[in-house]
Amino acid sequence: MTLDELKSIFLSYCCNEAGTPDKKLFGLEYENFVMNPKENEQTQSFVPLSVEGDSGVFRVLENLAEFSKDSDEPLEKVYEKEMLLALKSPSGSKVTIEPGGQIELSDAPRNSLLEASESLNKYLNLLKKAVSEFDGRLLFQGVQPVHGLEELPFFNKSRYQIMFPHMLKTGTLGQWMMKASAGVQVSIDYASIEDMQRKFVFLNRLSPFLTAIFANSPLVEGSPSGFLSYRSHIWTSTDDTRSGLQTSFLSDKFHIEDYISWALEASPYHLMREGEVVETTDWNFQQLLDGNHPDLKITMEDWEDHLGMLFPDIRIKNILEIRVVDSISPQYALAVPALIGALLYHEHAFSSVQSMLMDFPDEEFQLYKMAVAKDALHAEVNRTNFAKTGRILMETALEELGSDEEKWLMPYFDKYTKEGRTPADETLDDFRNCGEYPEKWLAKILSNSDY
Fold first, then answer.
1. What is the torsion angle, in degrees rounded to the nearest 10, for the CA atoms of residue 20, residue 21, residue 22 and residue 25?
2. Are 144 and 221 in contact (CB under 8 A)?
């Protein structure tokens, strides 16, 4: 398989679909934890959602399918052999389960923030109904804040069975990434290879500032972790061969061949053959192409699957996927695509912000990532003040959003970014106001009707 053949898959993604001539769709992925009340406790306390049982993951999926069956978007069950794995709707939305029982909505591509908001609200109302029979509560934090790794369930999907032990070979926090993290991800279209390359560099340079603006994971195992985005810190110790921010991705000379070269050095976790999983962690993709595996002849489908097993801050597939934002409260979730879309899809904003971002030295970006994981908008690295830059980014986006659209971003800006604060700061304030008792804090936020 030649370089041109590997590149051809990205070229095929550039073909406009009918009805989307401008390729300005975006997609939202939204993860959250579910907490169940602890039985036979005098004081209110909660435990993570289990996998099995009447108040577990499978029950949630069954309820979602049942409650949606007469709607205009019925959720159909997806199985891995005999195991209920996920749900999908006719429009293309999916509900999947992450390794630690996190529930994820991968919404269908949307044309507007209003469409995305309506879809998200319908889903969350359905999910609340699905967990209400056992008094389950939805928790929106970037990292499980109270319970440790051993207390979290494990969703026994075949891919996860390979990934989970492998994480011990590639870093110290990969299992935390799998079982204890949750994020808001935004997917952006591209119209050509040149358009993709331009947006990709822009988004990689933007990524530490997005982490800072939306930081929301300061608590780990019931105590302040010392990081405002512990989720971001987790990614620094997961797997350097497939995650992070590569210096070549920051260059104005970046080409898709740079991404391909990087991807070839990473190992797929597995490839599929006749419906069976074949573990491939001992070979990187280039070695598999070279025929080093005794039983596998590599196909274009393998290459596409492999691209989905990479975890850089910005991932290139048939879309550009922004992966650096902690999960936040639903009332502010649309602020994430509102900010990103305003900066990417309005040329004046794009050019203005691009000029600012390209002035930041390439060699400082690893320092930025470490600084924002720890201090979010309170971070300063040399001449870069993250609170000031965050305000500039938000104000630039708000100037581009019309009066009907700014409502998705303005409340978040007014409450947090304008004041140099993040949801993580608010979480720590609430935690201290609860006497730093994790169970008391958790019960309080889970009972908040606005949460």
1. 10
2. no
How large is the C-alpha radius of gyration of the chain? 21
Which amino acid is residue 128, in one-letter code? K
Paired with 296 in beta bridges are none
Q: How is the chain split into domains, by residue range?
A: 3-266+310-446
Q: How confident is the model at residue 19 (pLDDT cuts 50, 70, 90)?
A: very low
CA angle 423, 325, 147 (to 5 degrees): 65
Q: Which two tokens stand for residue 53?
A: 């049982």
Query: Hey, what are 355's tokens?
Result: 């000029």
The neighbour count for residue 173, using CB atoms within 10 Å, is 20
In the structure encoding, which two tokens stand for residue 151, read together?
Answer: 């207390």
Distance CA 86, CA 95 (A): 6
Calculate helix-pair angle for 335-345, 193-213, nearest 10 degrees: 140
Integer Cα distance of 126 and 364 in angstroms: 44
324: closest CA among 253, 396, 391, 243?
243
Contacts 24+ apart (CB under 8 A), 65-69: 67/126, 67/129, 67/130, 68/126
**Mean pLDDT along residues 339-365:** 96
For domain 3-266+310-446, the question of CATH label 3.30.590.20 is answered with: yes
Residue 287, CA distances (Å) to 276, 283, 419 in order: 21, 6, 51
Q: What is the pLDDT of residue 451?
A: 56
Tokens coding 48 = 């993570």
Convert the chain into a string of H (helix), E (strand) and C (coil): CCHHHHHHHHHHHCCCCCCCCCCCCEEEEEEEEEEEECCCCCCCCEEECECCCCCEHHHHHHHHHHHHCCCCCCCEEEEECCEEEEEECCCCCEEEECCCCCEEEECCCECCHHHHHHHHHHHHHHHHHHHHCCCCEEECCCECCCCCHHHCCCCCCHHHHHHHHHHHHHCCCHHHHHHHECEEEEEECCCCHHHHHHHHHHHHHHHHHHHHHCCCECEECCEECCCCEHHHHHHCCCCCCCEECCHHHHCCCCCHHHHHHHHHCCCCCEEEECCEEEECCCCCHHHHHCCCCCCCCCCHHHHHHHHCCCEECEEECCCEEEEEEECCCHHHHCHHHHHHHHHHHCHHHHHHHHHHHHCCCHHHHHHHHHHHHHHHHHCEECCEEHHHHHHHHHHHHHHHCCCCCHHHCHHHHHHCHHHCCCHHHHHHHHHHHCCCCHHHHHHHHHCCCCC
Per-residue pLDDT of 102-130, as tens digits, reads: 999 999 999 999 999 999 999 999 999 99
